[in-house]
Amino acid sequence: MTAKLISGTETAKAIREELTREVAELKEKHNVVPGLVTILVGEDPASQSYVAAKNKTAHALGIHSEQVTLDPETSEEDLLKLVDKYNKDSKINGILVQLPLPKHINEANVLYAINPDKDVDGFHPVNVGKMVLGEQCFLPCTPHGILELLTRSGVETSGAEVVVIGRSNIVGKPIANLMLQKRDGGNATVTLCHTRTKDMAAHCKRADIIIAAVGVPKMVTADMVKEGAAIIDVGVNRIGKASNGKAILAGDVDFDAVKEVASCITPVPGGVGPMTITMLMKNTVQAAKMAAN
Ligand code: GUN
């Protein structure tokens, strides 16, 4: 079998077209322009490129976007003051503090300081709690993007055996939770695997859908995958540098071998990555609509 490619690039393009129309309509009918601020502390190259991509996408969609880059030595107190400033700024509907933060800053203190109504990352405990309860809230962008990829690609989740590998707060825990809920893209039987899981391969081999979010290049090999399974690869691992200086990326899945066993698979790059950014834009538009009502 050669798997069908689940293109995040194509799906994201379709959703961005929908969002571009929504942003234009908000401006036309209500004179509202959604506003996003991204805050980056430090000079991590991967974070710099993610934040730049978020701002570029926002501009392309007609969203007002501000980018703040702070010195790596910035104190927690100064960062909290900045968050507070944007909490009070009516031009800004969404506040994103790029993670990870430098070690001297307590991540929770910063995330909890963001007004939950502007928490377009969906990381504030109010939004996390609402998500777990199945209430209306900002869904975290990567899990939200995975749901959209699965449903728009026609992958049946209801009754499916899903194995999620990785228990991070950003991806593993929320996607496992969303997929077991009574909702479109949910109703699955979910197993959440992690570093202490005894026999990862045995769990994976039973799965109709595998979602890999571990940060270990090519960890999911063909012998771990059931014939016809759907594979979502969240990993973006920098495994070297090309002669032109560009990073060489690999996912958490051994793409070339697994595509011969799976029924469909996301590539890296061009899979989950573009979806994460797109769902951030969707949340920002949602925040602007909430503020306007
Ligand atoms: N770092 C890696 N992924 C994310 C994300 O989705 N949001 C933020 N704020 N930081 C991240």
From TrEMBL:
<keyword id="KW-0554">One-carbon metabolism</keyword>
<keyword id="KW-0486">Methionine biosynthesis</keyword>
<feature type="domain" description="Tetrahydrofolate dehydrogenase/cyclohydrolase NAD(P)-binding">
    <location>
        <begin position="140"/>
        <end position="290"/>
    </location>
</feature>
<keyword id="KW-0511">Multifunctional enzyme</keyword>
<dbReference type="GO" id="GO:0004477">
    <property type="term" value="F:methenyltetrahydrofolate cyclohydrolase activity"/>
</dbReference>
<comment type="similarity">
    <text>Belongs to the tetrahydrofolate dehydrogenase/cyclohydrolase family.</text>
</comment>
<comment type="subunit">
    <text>Homodimer.</text>
</comment>
<keyword id="KW-0521">NADP</keyword>
<dbReference type="InterPro" id="IPR000672">
    <property type="entry name" value="THF_DH/CycHdrlase"/>
</dbReference>
<keyword id="KW-0658">Purine biosynthesis</keyword>
<dbReference type="InterPro" id="IPR020867">
    <property type="entry name" value="THF_DH/CycHdrlase_CS"/>
</dbReference>
<comment type="function">
    <text>Catalyzes the oxidation of 5,10-methylenetetrahydrofolate to 5,10-methenyltetrahydrofolate and then the hydrolysis of 5,10-methenyltetrahydrofolate to 10-formyltetrahydrofolate.</text>
</comment>
<keyword id="KW-0368">Histidine biosynthesis</keyword>
<dbReference type="GO" id="GO:0006164">
    <property type="term" value="P:purine nucleotide biosynthetic process"/>
</dbReference>
<protein>
    <recommendedName>
        <fullName>Bifunctional protein FolD</fullName>
        <ecNumber>1.5.1.5</ecNumber>
        <ecNumber>3.5.4.9</ecNumber>
    </recommendedName>
</protein>
<feature type="domain" description="Tetrahydrofolate dehydrogenase/cyclohydrolase catalytic">
    <location>
        <begin position="6"/>
        <end position="121"/>
    </location>
</feature>
<feature type="binding site">
    <location>
        <position position="236"/>
    </location>
    <ligand>
        <name>NADP(+)</name>
    </ligand>
</feature>
<dbReference type="InterPro" id="IPR020631">
    <property type="entry name" value="THF_DH/CycHdrlase_NAD-bd_dom"/>
</dbReference>
<dbReference type="GO" id="GO:0000105">
    <property type="term" value="P:L-histidine biosynthetic process"/>
</dbReference>
<keyword id="KW-0028">Amino-acid biosynthesis</keyword>
<keyword id="KW-0378">Hydrolase</keyword>
<dbReference type="InterPro" id="IPR046346">
    <property type="entry name" value="Aminoacid_DH-like_N_sf"/>
</dbReference>
<dbReference type="InterPro" id="IPR036291">
    <property type="entry name" value="NAD(P)-bd_dom_sf"/>
</dbReference>
<feature type="binding site">
    <location>
        <begin position="166"/>
        <end position="168"/>
    </location>
    <ligand>
        <name>NADP(+)</name>
    </ligand>
</feature>
<dbReference type="GO" id="GO:0009086">
    <property type="term" value="P:methionine biosynthetic process"/>
</dbReference>
<dbReference type="Pfam" id="PF02882">
    <property type="entry name" value="THF_DHG_CYH_C"/>
</dbReference>
<comment type="pathway">
    <text>One-carbon metabolism; tetrahydrofolate interconversion.</text>
</comment>
<dbReference type="GO" id="GO:0035999">
    <property type="term" value="P:tetrahydrofolate interconversion"/>
</dbReference>
<keyword id="KW-0560">Oxidoreductase</keyword>
<dbReference type="GO" id="GO:0004488">
    <property type="term" value="F:methylenetetrahydrofolate dehydrogenase (NADP+) activity"/>
</dbReference>
<dbReference type="GO" id="GO:0005829">
    <property type="term" value="C:cytosol"/>
</dbReference>
<dbReference type="Pfam" id="PF00763">
    <property type="entry name" value="THF_DHG_CYH"/>
</dbReference>
<dbReference type="InterPro" id="IPR020630">
    <property type="entry name" value="THF_DH/CycHdrlase_cat_dom"/>
</dbReference>
